[in-house]
Write a structure and sequence with these properties.
334 residues, 3 domains, alpha+beta, single chain, two-stranded antiparallel ribbon, elongated, twelve-stranded mixed beta sheet
């Protein structure tokens, strides 16, 4: 307490003890995780990092670290640590990325995947450039520019914000198949989330969202053994199929039983039929919103690219939700 000019006594605000204890616990957990990432000469590396953080000024040489009180070893051990120490970079990256994993609406985990481009047309010595599709300045124009394409997986939050938490980035190489690489990348991210305890049995499935250009049925099929739901926007010219008649009827000219039923054409509402569920809403931001849900639809596999070795009798079933606003429709496959 201290007196003021008016003679009153001012009491300094006391810190929230619970918040302080929670911060200390989080710091302790982080330091334990960080120490576990140092696989060789771990104690020496740990003290060297503490010395760098606690030094009064910039660290200009390794020997100077031994003069910092937090470093209790000789300057020779610093040299040996730098030369022979090892860090599990993969574990370190995930320890940082998943420490404060954002949550989407309802508290579930929502992952978004997309490709971002880094045009490098003048970097002739840059290795493994690919042709990147970019839009020109004029409307309706596009260009193919040499550069690097990165597949990025980020965790999304709820509410009106554009902030995301990037979790993983992979630079696509020439010859990489985007769909296969994306499925592999998503599998690694989800596996890490589960292994580090950010998702537990009984939690909501991890939702994966992607824009059109991604093969939603393929991603859902490849990740079927993981606790995920795949939600991908599909192009407006796609065609899905219903199941064939129960008796597997043949065509008008005979032949083998039909494998596909009637067509479900995105651009032809007359082919949609009656939706399984339908809801309408009035939102302040978007106005009138109508959502329709369809089920038991499947794609016709073309035996090309990622579906080349898929067993023919098996169907990849989809659930279709069509969000129809006054401005545009948003068909989504999950």
């Amino acid at each position: 307490m201290r007196p003021t000019k008016t003679g009153a006594t001012a009491v300094p605000s006391l810190p929230d003890r619970d918040a302080r204890d929670a911060a200390l616990r989080e710091l302790k957990e982080f330091r334990v995780d960080f120490r576990a990432c140092l696989t060789r000469w771990g104690d020496e590396l740990f003290e060297a990092v503490d010395a760098v953080l606690c030094a009064d000024g910039p660290v200009r040489d390794l020997a100077g670290l031994s003069l910092v009180p937090e470093h209790s070893r000789s300057h020779g051990s610093v040299q040996r640590t730098v030369n022979d120490g090892k860090i599990d970079l993969d574990r370190l990256n995930w320890s940082f990325a998943l420490r404060d994993l954002p949550r989407g609406p309802g508290g579930g985990i929502v992952l978004a995947v997309d490709v971002t481009l880094w045009p490098r047309p003048d970097a002739n010595t840059s290795d493994q450039r690919t042709f990147c599709h970019t839009y020109g300045r004029a409307e309706g124009t596009h260009e193919m520019i040499p550069g690097w394409a990165y597949s990025i997986v980020a965790a999304l939050t709820g509410g009106p914000t554009s902030w995301t938490a990037p979790l993983d980035a992979y630079r696509l190489r020439p010859g990489d198949h985007v769909q296969q690489r994306t499925a592999h990348q998503l599998r690694e991210v989800v596996t890490k989330i589960v292994a580090l305890g950010r998702w537990r049995e009984g939690d909501e499935p991890i939702r994966i969202v992607a824009d059109r250009g991604y093969d939603g049925p393929y991603l859902a099929h490849q990740l079927a053994d993981l606790p995920v739901e795949v939600c991908v926007r599909m192009r407006g010219d796609r065609v899905l199929y219903r199941d064939p008649p129960a008796q597997g009827g043949v065509g008008p000219k005979g032949g083998r039983p039909r494998r596909h039923g009637s067509r479900f054409e995105f651009h032809t509402p007359d082919t949609w039929g009656r939706p399984l569920h339908e809801r309408t809403h009035e939102l302040d931001t978007y106005g009138h919103v109508r959502v329709r849900c369809f089920e038991r639809l499947h794609v016709k596999l073309n035996r090309q690219t990622v579906w080349e070795h898929h067993p023919e009798p098996e169907r990849v079933r989809l659930g279709l939700r069509d969000g129809d606003r006054e401005e545009f429709g948003v068909p989504v496959v999950r």
